[in-house]
Amino acid sequence: MTELIIKLDVPSKFEQEFRLALARALKNLVIEIEFAIADAILSKSKLTDEQARGLADELKHRVAKRHGL
Length: 69
Hints:
This protein is an all-alpha fold. The protein has one domain. It has two helices and no strands.
């Protein structure tokens, strides 16, 4: 696995706010990357649109159940 290290100079008075903002931004970035990877994988799929929709519906229900929705 590749490791990426980024160093930033953050004024100490903004350290806590920066940590929170960075955590939110990285969470969103990870979600976008996961969707991009899924899209790349699915673009090579031989599933029909109907099969893909069925799988998406099943996944949606599982996620909702996991989050108590």
